[in-house]
Amino acid sequence: MSSKSSAAQSGQALWTKMPKANAELFALTYGSLVTELVRDYEDPIEVNAQLDRIGHSIGVRCVDEFLSKADVAGMGMTTQCQSLRDTAEVVAKMGFKMFLGVQAEVGGFSQDQKSFSIYLQDNPLSTFVELPGDEQGGSDDLRRLKYSNVYCGVIRGALEQVNLKVECNIVRDTLKGDDLNEIRVELKEVLTDGAGDDYKEE
Amino acid sequence: MSSPILFVIVGKNEPLFEAEIDTHTGSQGNELSTRQNYFVLHSALDLVEKSAWTTTNMYLRVVDKVNHQQVSTFLTAGNIKFMLLHGGKGDEVIKSFFNEVYGYYVKLSMNPFYKYDTPITSKAFETRVRAAARSYLS
Amino acid sequence: MNLNKAPSNILDRPLDRPRSSDGVSLSAFAYIYSELVQYHQGRAASISELERRLESAGYGVGLKILELVAYRAKESKRETRLMSILHFVSSYVWKTLFGKSADSLERSIDHADEYMIVDYEPITSTFVSVPSDLGQLSVDAYLSGIIAGVLDGAGFSARVTAHSVKIEEGEVPPTGSGGFSVPGMPPRKEKAVFLVKFSPEVLSRDAALER
């Protein structure tokens, strides 16, 4: 499907034009936010929920930026997403690339084509992170922390803006010893507000 | 070299990491010499603090010679002190050891969950420090 | 799937300066930073408390940045003099964080213990505009915290505060256009001035070293 490789190409083109920020400052700033949440909420499950909420707030906002820039790049791809597969490709190859400079992969489509995974090898949020609690008996509590849960909120918030209601979960995490990071995305509902039904389910 | 080596990381107020290394096996040394060794290192601290501002070098060469043992110190940019009590190793091998440990220390400190000037509890850090000691100091 | 695996332990990852293509988009940083500000805002009872919280967040980052930048310089040297640590901050630290040196480093005429680091386009306020109810708040408080962390860690304790100062008619940044202009954004009306006030012990120690 030609849209697959062109998504990657557009992603690269978009990335090149974005003004840049230092990756370590980015990771340390996010780290400061996560550790602050851990101090304030203590319960890792609650922290995960906060990260998701924060991600949602970002997702809703970054979609406008994405859509305006992606259209300018002349691809017009995002208004022609004919399937969840296309949407997945756009999120992974264009979204992640444009904002984070990393190439995410898509796969693991379910039989009913309603869920898929996004795979991320390099995670700019967690560059020097090691979850505490390996050694001490006490707080292996933090093993339940989903450090990069903000991604789930971002994807959820962004897709909501294009009328897709999804649920996201981090199912594999390099901070927990997995080989790569995997975010599972499941379509729950297509919202129709009459503004346009550019989304058609296959 | 039969005498064990004592490596300590000292913060502003307290030790952050300690490893007594028998360079033959890389394992723990015995307890008898331990207390004396810590005393030697502790009294060297004053000398370290005095010389710290007289030079821009991170590596402060032998600062105190007591009982055929020498103390070499490395001061990080953040004034964390790596101190090595040893039986007279060469400057170059000690510098190499310190530089390698500094690399591990910087990576550890980049972890948002590690707070500056607090005890280092990472087993991974300890393993690598001992391995570096075996490579450079035996 | 062709994926290169990074070393599994953080202590085995390389620390060397990444290639120029690495980094993240400024937008990604701005979104995360904006959420950090909003989070602290929700928990602060006053503007000055918000500023303190942001400074405190930056302080921890500064301590880490100090070691990272010094290590990468690979000179095994520490700064022991006041002017050299300021130079370290305004050039090496600034270059690491923002890709360019600070626009200028100045000494206060009125106070011997005060210095100013000036930046015409600080990254933290590029996309974050201050809502009118926050008055004097400068979101650059996070950066002041970073600077304070670097200075304090190196043994030069100082009080660092961020101020937005109007750019005078005809005033041109010393470095020309500044390395950091963002296409499509209107020109800035204010520059960020980071005021560094060193503690008395630092000044007397530095004076003693002069002799």
Order the strands across the largest sheet of chain C as they lie in space.
2-3-5-4
Q: Considering DSSP H and I runs of 4 or more, what fraction of the residues of chain C is helical? A: 40-55%
CATH homologous superfamily heading of chain C: Trafficking protein particle complex subunit 3
Just name the CATH architecture of chain A: 2-Layer Sandwich
Care to count the β-strands of chain C? 5
Write a compact overview of the structure shown:
By secondary structure, chain B is an alpha+beta fold. Chain B has helices at 32-52, 91-109, 123-137, and strands spanning 5-10, 15-21, 59-66, 69-75, 81-86.
Topology readout:
The complex is a heterotrimer of chains A (202), B (138) and C (211).
Chain A: H1 2-17, E1 20-21, H2 23-41, H3 44-72, H4 84-100, E2 105-107, E3 115-120, H5 150-160, E4 164-172, E5 181-190
Helix pairs in contact in A: 1-4, 2-3, 3-5
Chain B: E1 5-10, E2 15-21, H1 32-52, E3 59-66, E4 69-75, E5 81-86, H2 91-109, H3 123-137
Antiparallel strand pairs in B: 1-2, 1-5, 3-4, 4-5
Helix pairs in contact in B: 2-3
Chain C: E1 24-25, H1 26-43, H2 47-73, H3 82-98, E2 104-107, E3 114-119, H4 123-126, H5 141-153, E4 158-166, E5 190-198, H6 200-210
Can you describe this structure?
- The complex is a heterotrimer of chains A (202), B (138) and C (211).
- Chain A has 202 residues and is an alpha+beta fold.
- Chain A has one domain: Trafficking protein particle complex subunit 3 (Muramoyl-pentapeptide Carboxypeptidase, domain 2), CATH 3.30.1380.
- Chain A has helices at residues 2-17, 23-41, 44-72, 84-100, 150-160; strands spanning 20-21, 105-107, 115-120, 164-172, 181-190.
- Chain A has a four-stranded antiparallel beta sheet, covered by helices on one side.
- In chain A, helix 1 runs parallel beside helix 4, helix 2 (23-41) packs antiparallel against helix 3 (44-72) and helix 3 packs across helix 5 (150-160).
- Chain A is globular, with a radius of gyration of 17 Å.
- With 138 residues, chain B is an alpha+beta fold.
- Chain B has one domain: 2-Layer Sandwich (Beta-Lactamase), CATH 3.30.450.70.
- Chain B has helices at 32-52, 91-109, 123-137, and strands at residues 5-10, 15-21, 59-66, 69-75, 81-86.
- In chain B, strand 3 (59-66) and strand 4 (69-75) form a beta hairpin.
- The model of chain B has no long low-confidence stretch (mean pLDDT 85).
- Chain C is of the alpha+beta class.
- Chain C has one domain: Trafficking protein particle complex subunit 3 (Muramoyl-pentapeptide Carboxypeptidase, domain 2).
- Chain C is 43% helix and 14% strand.
- Chain C has helices at residues 26-43, 47-73, 82-98, 123-126, 141-153, 200-210, and strands at 24-25, 104-107, 114-119, 158-166, 190-198.
- In chain C, helix 2 (47-73) packs across helix 5.
- Chain C is globular, with a radius of gyration of 18 Å.
- Chains A and C meet through strand 1, helix 2, helix 3 and helix 4 of A and strand 1, helix 1, helix 2 and helix 3 of C.
